[in-house]
Automatic annotation (TrEMBL):
<dbReference type="InterPro" id="IPR003593">
    <property type="entry name" value="AAA+_ATPase"/>
</dbReference>
<dbReference type="Pfam" id="PF08402">
    <property type="entry name" value="TOBE_2"/>
</dbReference>
<dbReference type="GO" id="GO:0005524">
    <property type="term" value="F:ATP binding"/>
</dbReference>
<dbReference type="Pfam" id="PF00005">
    <property type="entry name" value="ABC_tran"/>
</dbReference>
<dbReference type="InterPro" id="IPR012340">
    <property type="entry name" value="NA-bd_OB-fold"/>
</dbReference>
<keyword id="KW-0067">ATP-binding</keyword>
<dbReference type="InterPro" id="IPR008995">
    <property type="entry name" value="Mo/tungstate-bd_C_term_dom"/>
</dbReference>
<dbReference type="InterPro" id="IPR047641">
    <property type="entry name" value="ABC_transpr_MalK/UgpC-like"/>
</dbReference>
<comment type="similarity">
    <text>Belongs to the ABC transporter superfamily.</text>
</comment>
<protein>
    <submittedName>
        <fullName>ABC transporter ATP-binding protein</fullName>
    </submittedName>
</protein>
<dbReference type="InterPro" id="IPR027417">
    <property type="entry name" value="P-loop_NTPase"/>
</dbReference>
<feature type="domain" description="ABC transporter">
    <location>
        <begin position="4"/>
        <end position="241"/>
    </location>
</feature>
<dbReference type="InterPro" id="IPR013611">
    <property type="entry name" value="Transp-assoc_OB_typ2"/>
</dbReference>
<dbReference type="InterPro" id="IPR003439">
    <property type="entry name" value="ABC_transporter-like_ATP-bd"/>
</dbReference>
<keyword id="KW-0813">Transport</keyword>
<keyword id="KW-1003">Cell membrane</keyword>
<keyword id="KW-0547">Nucleotide-binding</keyword>
Length: 361
C-alpha cells in the first residue's frame, strides 16, 4: 500500500502546448494518503481518466513527478507500480473460464495454488458469480464481464493502490449498489489506497472518505462530503453537488451584509473588501419562502413535489433560484419573499470562495 504524491503534475496531449487551455490536466500538487478511499468526481471530459492513467503509468505526464511512498515512479512501467486498475468497459479473456480470469493476476505473480483457489472462490462470491466460475467468459453479458473485471481488480491483496475508472457504467442499478458496498467493505478489510472515478455525485459521496472534485482540468476542491456541501470552494462544486445545486447570485458585499436585488441580507460572518465578480452562494436547503414580507421579493415559478419535501422554483430580480420546503409547508401565493439562513451563505469572488475574516485558511 502506498502514499501517492503528485508533484507539480500537469499533462497536455499536444506535443507543444501553448497556453493553459492546451492542458487536459492543469498543474496539480497533492498527496493521496495511504489507505484512504477517494472519489474523483467531475463532468465528462474534465481530466479524470487522464489523471488516473498517469497514476497507473499508462500515460507519462508532460510535466512534474509522481511518487509512491516518496519514490519517484514517473517513468516506471505500469507493472512495476503494482497497481490494480479497472476500466469503464470490461477487459476479460474470452477463451478463459471465469475462474481462470479471476486467477490470472495471482498466477501471474506465482501465488500458491491453494491460496489462488480459495481467493478466487471468495472473489467469485463477492461479485455474485460463484455459480458461473467454470463457464467461459465468451457469451457472457457485458454486465457479467464487467463483474469479472472488477473481481480481477480486487483479487490481489498486496497492491499499492486500486484504481477504478467509472467501473459501474455498464452494471444494472441494483447490482451497482451491491458492488459499491462490496468495494467499501473491501476497503475496510484491506485498507488499500483507492481512487474511484465517477461523474455521479451519489456514487462519489457514498463511496469515499474524501472527494476530489475536478472541473476543466483542475482540482477545485478536496474534502469530505460535508465540506463539499457546506463550504463549496468553487461555484462549480456548489452547482455540481446537491440536488438541486447551490443558488448563486450577484451581490454587493459590505462587511457582514450582502445586497441582493437591492435588499440587505445578513451574512453569517464579516468579509474584508474583495475584488472581482462578487456573488453569494446559498443552497436550497437554506432558502426559506416567507409570506410576511421579510427578505427579498420573489416570484414563485412552480412547486415540485418530490416525496419527502418540495422544491420551490423561484425568481428574484431576473435570477432563478430553488428552495427546499417541508412536505407540509404552505407556499404563499400572495407577495412571496425569500430569506436565507446566514450560516448557509458563502461569498465568491470570480467563482472562488472567499474566506470570511477570521476563518482559518
Ligand atoms: P474524463 O475522464 O474526465 O471524461 P479525460 O481525461 O478522458 O476526461 O479527458 C480530458 C480531456 O483530454 C478531454 O478534453 C479529452 O478530449 C482530452 N483527451 C483525452 N484523451 C486524449 C487523447 N488520447 N488525445 C488527445 N486528447 C485527449
Ligand atoms: Mg474518463
Amino acid at each position: 500500500m502506498a502514499k501517492i504524491t503528485l508533484d507539480n503534475l500537469a499533462h497536455s496531449y499536444f506535443p507543444a502546448p501553448k497556453s493553459e487551455d492546451d492542458f487536459a490536466l492543469k498543474e496539480l500538487n497533492h498527496d493521496w494518503v495511504d489507505g484512504e478511499a477517494y472519489a474523483l468526481l467531475g463532468a465528462s471530459g474534465c481530466g479524470k481518466s487522464t489523471l488516473l492513467n498517469i497514476i497507473s503509468g499508462l500515460l507519462h505526464p508532460s510535466q512534474g513527478r509522481i511518487l509512491f511512498n516518496d519514490q519517484d515512479v514517473t517513468y516506471a512501467p505500469t507493472a512495476e507500480r503494482n497497481i490494480a486498475q479497472v476500466f469503464q468497459f470490461p477487459v476479460v479473456y474470452d477463451t478463459m473460464t471465469v475462474r481462470d480470469n479471476l486467477a490470472f493476476p495471482l498466477r501471474n505473480r506465482g501465488a500458491d495454488p491453494n491460496y489462488v483457489a480459495s481467493r478466487v472462490q471468495q472473489i467469485g462470491k463477492m461479485i455474485g458469480m460463484e455459480a458461473e466460475l467454470d463457464r467461459k467468459a465468451r457469451g457472457l453479458t457485458a454486465d457479467a464481464k464487467q463483474k469479472i473485471s472488477l473481481g480481477r481488480g480486487m483479487v490481489r491483496e498486496d497492491v499499492n493502490a486500486l484504481l477504478f475508472d467509472e467501473p459501474l457504467t455498464v452494471i444494472d442499478p441494483h447490482m451497482k449498489w451491491e458492488l459499491r458496498t462490496q468495494l467499501k467493505s473491501l476497503h475496510h478489510e484491506f485498507g488499500h489506497t483507492m481512487i474511484y472515478v465517477t461523474h455521479d455525485q451519489t456514487e462519489a459521496l457514498t463511496f469515499a472518505d474524501k472527494v476530489v472534485v475536478m472541473y476543466d482540468g483542475r482540482v477545485v476542491q478536496i474534502g469530505t462530503p460535508q465540506e463539499l456541501f457546506e463550504r463549496p470552494a468553487h461555484t462549480f462544486v456548489g452547482y455540481f453537488i446537491g440536488s438541486p445545486g447551490m443558488n448563486v447570485f450577484d451581490a454587493k458585499i459590505d462587511g457582514a451584509t450582502a445586497q441582493i436585488a437591492g435588499v440587505e441580507v445578513p451574512l453569517g460572518a464579516g468579509y474584508k473588501p474583495a475584488c472581482g465578480k462578487l456573488q453569494v452562494g446559498v443552497r436550497p436547503e437554506y432558502v426559506k419562502v416567507t409570506a410576511d414580507g421579510t427578505g427579498v421579493p420573489a416570484r414563485v415559478l412552480r412547486v415540485e413535489d418530490v416525496g419527502r419535501h418540495k422544491i420551490v422554483r423561484l425568481e428574484i430580480d431576473g435570477a432563478q433560484l430553488s428552495a427546499i420546503a417541508g412536505e407540509g409547508d404552505v407556499i404563499p401565493e400572495m407577495n412571496p419573499h425569500v430569506t436565507f439562513d446566514p450560516e448557509g451563505i458563502n461569498v465568491y469572488a470570480d467563482d472562488w470562495r472567499v474566506a470570511p475574516a477570521g476563518e482559518a485558511a
